[in-house]
Amino acid sequence: MFNPPHPGELLKVGYIDELKLSVSKVALMLGVSRKTIYDIINEKTAITPAMALRISKAFNTEAEFWLNLQMKYDLFNAMQTTNLDDVKTYKQIA
Fold first, then answer.
1. Are 47 and 7 in contact (CB under 8 A)?
2. Which of 1, 4, 36, 47 is 20 to 30 Å from the Cα of 78, by its Cα?
3. Cα–Cα distance between 84 and 9 in angstroms, integer?
4. How many CA atoms lie within 13 A of 55 on its CB side?
């Protein structure tokens, strides 16, 4: 599995930069603070279901698209840091 991008990267490059929008404009469009948008596009915070709904309405996309990006990003990072050595499969404990 390859390292998927944070959904904030896509929001920044594919929407904010591509449409030549300011962070202030996007924050106003989404009804959130500029800090919230900065934290997302700087990969400091995740896209929540509520934020996915806001982004999907503002940019005419699907909320599931943004949530799937976030899930893939989170799962990849969990796979890099989670030790499963002590986890037993069902057959081993039966």
1. yes
2. 36
3. 29
4. 26
In order along the chain (94 residues), what is the average pLDDT of each group of 10 residues? 92 98 98 98 98 98 98 97 92 70
DSSP assignment string, 2-65: --PPPHHHHIIIIIIITTT--HHHHHHHHTS-HHHHHHHHTTSSPPPHHHHHHHHHHHT--HHH
| Cβ-contact 23, 37 below 8 angstroms | yes
Tokens representing 56?
């999907």
How far is the C-alpha of 59 from the C-alpha of 34, rounded, in Å?
17
